[in-house]
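Tokens for chain A. Residues wanted.
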């Protein structure tokens, strides 16, 4: 998982965004593979190629409800001069003992049923009279209602080419083919394929368990009444949802009051179910920044190799950050700022890649592109800081949403991209091509 050691960079060192991210990704390691049942493996990453043990479909079968016949027996058939064939019985899906179709014969066949010996093609029931002798029909009557439909004669009004409406054995995948590659994320289609080829379990890296907690005595659970000076806790909801969106199993912990001992106890209680811990708030330079107070010297008491480093980054928003490991298993912990936009931007830049790394994915970052800036005025950015502004992206253009304030949750809710302004740029004119991080 993690093998971090306490950092000794000094309080005055200003980290770049790239340095901080590199430090995180150099520390976090993919989780160990485990064997899981198919449905438990949804969202997980395969660690080995899966080969096909049996062809799919495993036998020639009908793609239509109709009649299995010989090609020569329906050649030249028309409504004026239909081919009249003896019906020798039914072939249903799952049937083991198959009829033999000889010259001048037909077997009523259902979708998915094996093509019986002697038959060369399938005539859809709509091309026949269904054995009723009253012209073309639109479907078969249920066997329970009309068992006599499996015998007698059928009139066929159209010819059929060889193997028409027949799904060939191995036409989907053949035995020995590679069904899925290592590194594949298992979604519903992939799980369907695994089940179809008979795999009940699969070896994967499990979805990482991420514990999210916010700090602050001013935070109140939604649906509760606000007191004087209080606000609703939105960060823990946003980050828990973001962790799930990234592929993790995420647990939200109710807001922890500004008390260092309480916070440390809460973190210790949560370690048992965490592959990664994320806190928000309490990492700046204020007198009540409880995360920094509680965890700055955690390595003094924990096992060697643990420790949280609090640092300043050359970015806006999100300057104060914390990273390290905690507990006997050296569980990675990322401490994010408390302002809503700062915490979310920090999650996208640092926590999401960490989660994707734990999953064992090769590409851990959000996609990026170049886009033309469309805005009513130039964007300003502080010198020496890499700025990330909310925006909406469409058709090669990006438009800022809201201002630069790190508290603007409403603007964040309407954004689907981050506009990146480099450290050495202080102004960006409308029409300029900019780098964009795509969030959707």
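Reply:
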């Amino acid at each position: 998982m993690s093998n971090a050691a306490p950092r000794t960079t000094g309080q005055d060192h200003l980290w770049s965004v790239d340095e901080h991210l590199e430090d995180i990704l150099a520390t976090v390691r993919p989780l160990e593979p485990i064997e899981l049942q198919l449905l438990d493996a949804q969202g997980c990453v395969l660690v080995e190629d899966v080969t096909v043990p049996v062809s799919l479909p495993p036998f020639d079968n009908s793609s239509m409800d109709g009649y299995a016949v010989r090609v020569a027996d329906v050649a030249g058939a028309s409504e004026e001069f239909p081919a009249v064939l003896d019906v020798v019985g039914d072939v249903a899906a799952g049937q083991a003992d198959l009829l033999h179709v000889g010259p001048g014969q037909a077997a009523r066949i259902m979708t998915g049923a094996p093509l019986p010996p002697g038959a060369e093609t399938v005539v859809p029931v709509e091309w026949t009279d269904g054995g009723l002798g009253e012209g073309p029909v639109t479907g078969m009557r249920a066997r329970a209602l009309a068992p006599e439909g499996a015998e007698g004669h059928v009139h066929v009004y159209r010819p059929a080419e060889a193997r028409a409406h027949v799904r060939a054995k191995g036409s989907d995948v053949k035995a020995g083919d590679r069904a899925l590659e290592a590194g594949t994320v298992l979604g519903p289609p992939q799980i369907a394929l695994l089940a179809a080829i008979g795999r009940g379990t699969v070896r994967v890296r499990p979805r990482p368990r991420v514990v999210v907690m916010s700090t602050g005595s001013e935070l109140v659970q939604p649906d509760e009444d606000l007191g004087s000076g209080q606000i609703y806790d939105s960060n823990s909801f946003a980050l828990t949802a973001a962790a799930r969106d990234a592929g993790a199993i995420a647990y939200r912990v109710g807001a922890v009051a500004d008390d260092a001992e309480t916070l440390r106890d809460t973190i210790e209680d949560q370690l048992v179910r965490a592959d990664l811990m994320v806190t928000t708030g309490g990492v700046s330079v204020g007198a009540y920044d409880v995360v920094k107070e509680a965890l700055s010297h955690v390595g003094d008491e924990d096992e060697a190799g643990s420790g949280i480093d609090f640092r300043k980054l050359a970015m806006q928003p999100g300057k104060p950050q914390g990273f390290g490991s905690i507990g006997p298993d050296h569980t990675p912990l990322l401490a994010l700022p408390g302002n809503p936009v700062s915490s979310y931007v920090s999650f996208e830049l640092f926590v999401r890649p960490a989660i994707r790394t734990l999953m064992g994915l090769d590409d851990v970052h959000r996609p990026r592109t170049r886009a033309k800036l469309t805005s009513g005025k130039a964007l300003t950015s502080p010198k020496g800081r890499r700025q990330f502004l909310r925006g909406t992206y469409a058709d090669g253009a990006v438009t800022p949403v809201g201002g630069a304030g790190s508290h603007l949750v409403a603007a964040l809710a309407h954004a689907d991209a981050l506009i990146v302004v480099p450290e050495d740029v202080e102004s960006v004119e409308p029409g300029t091509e900019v780098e964009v991080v795509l969030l959707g």
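Residues 210 and 276 are 5 Å apart (CA to CA). The radius of gyration is 32 Å.
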